[in-house]
Amino acid sequence: MLPLLSGAAIERTGKPFDRPDIMVPHVGGRRYGWTHYGVMIPDLPEPHRYFSIMVIAGLPGATALDNDDAVVRSPRDTVTMSASTAAPGVAHFGAYSMSEQCVLTPDGSLLDFGGDVVVTGTYPDFHVRVGAGEFTADLQLRCTGEVAWFARSVVYDHLSLLVEYTGSISVAGRRSEVSGLGTYEYAACAGLHGLVDRPLSASTKVPLDFFSYHVIGVDERSQLLLADTHVLGAPLATMAYFRSLDDDTWVTHEGVRFEVTEYAAEPATDPFGQKMRLPTRFTWTAADVLVVHGIVDSPPRYGVGRGYIIGYSCEGNYRGRPFDARGYMEYIDREAVDRADPEFRTATADPLLA
What we know:
Elements: H1 7-12, E1 34-41, E2 51-57, E3 78-84, E4 91-97, E5 102-104, E6 110-113, E7 117-122, E8 125-132, E9 135-152, E10 156-171, E11 174-189, E12 208-219, E13 222-231, E14 234-244, E15 250-252, E16 256-263, E17 268-269, E18 275-276, E19 279-286, E20 290-296, E21 301-304, E22 307-318, E23 321-333, H2 335-339, H3 342-345
Antiparallel strand pairs: 1-2, 1-11, 2-3, 3-4, 5-6, 6-7, 7-8, 8-9, 9-10, 10-11, 12-13, 12-23, 13-14, 14-15, 16-19, 17-18, 19-20, 20-22, 21-22, 22-23
């Protein structure tokens, strides 16, 4: 979710995590317009392949992330949440009133999103429960102390904790016992809707029009985190992280490239009728350190901003060590759609923000 690498983020990445106090929800806040929680597991056995919980509490005020069609009471009060795996029928997307349908305690020890997803606990131990129709999950997360910082500043914090997990995932009565490495993620950021709690025109929002974030389970002990963010069709931040229970952490935002080499023949259509082209093959490179070739093998699940969550298989090489792995992808491509929208290209500011 919308990482923007900074010097402070690079400096703290790989060092022991020492800021669990910041991981709190901001209900109706003005300093922080939105809060994000996520759980990502990239490499589950069949039929699931991956697991995802994606929560955005409050609209961020960015074109690729704001789901204006899903607003419940107001942008600041709206929570969008998705939970999915690749198994048939395992896809839940919901929009909730933060104040009326969710229970979010000030210390973050209880995060209840309409009863469909409930996260309890405090660092380093969290319990995740999903109960969405025939899709259920019960997972215990134990943070290892490894943290990747995507942003660290007075207006925006965004981090990913490496976790060991155990538990079960079920669909239609078929239960799978699971364990391994995953991520628990948190972000809080200042946003336009912290100032103006009503729908905004596209011309007043942050013109974020492309975003892709990946978690790859390189092996049972290590992960890759990869992200590419564009504003007005130009790269803003492209970054790569390697982290492990055994090896040193590596992070760079120089020489990193994400390239889609093949798209699906037909665009995907979201629940609100909007279409988006989605990748079927892609490549990541980072100088001579890393290469990843991915092939999508899972159905896209709507539910990250205005985009999709997708599972894939991949092969690659990190520092001369080849690997075959599974990956998790968040993908939003609004470049062609938004830049063709006259409202998006209008320079006139919203009168409430003038």
